[in-house]
Amino acid sequence: MLRSFKDRIFRFLFFPSVALWLMTIAVFPFNLPIHFSSRPDDVITQAENPIAYWSLKLGLLLITLAFSISAVLRHRALHRANI
Fold first, then answer.
1. Does the pTM of the predicted model rise above 0.85?
2. What is the domain range of residue 58?
3. Is residue 33 part of a domain?
4. 31: left (phi > 0), else alpha (psi -120 to 50), else beta?
5. Do 51 and 34 contact (CB within 8 A), yes or no?
6. What is the pLDDT of residues 23-46, one digit of tens each?
7. Which of 8, 10, 36, 60 is 20 to 30 A away from residue 16, measured at CA?
C-alpha cells in the first residue's frame, strides 16, 4: 500500500512536469510573443529583443527541467527509504 502511494506521488509530480517541459520545447520553434500583462504594449518578441526573448524561453525551460529532475530524485529517495 505504501509503495503504491509513493508511485501516485511520483506520477502526480513527474508527469505534469514532463508535459510542461515538452510544451515549452514545442513553443521554441515559433516566434510567439511573450505577454507580461494584459496591455498589448508589454510584449517581447524575438525580432525586437532576441536576447531577452530567448533568455526568458530558456529560463522557463530550465525551471520545468529542474522540477522534473527534482521529482525523479524525490521518487528515488522515497523508494530507497522503503527498502
1. no
2. 2-28+45-82
3. no
4. beta
5. no
6. 666 665 555 566 565 666 666 666
7. 36
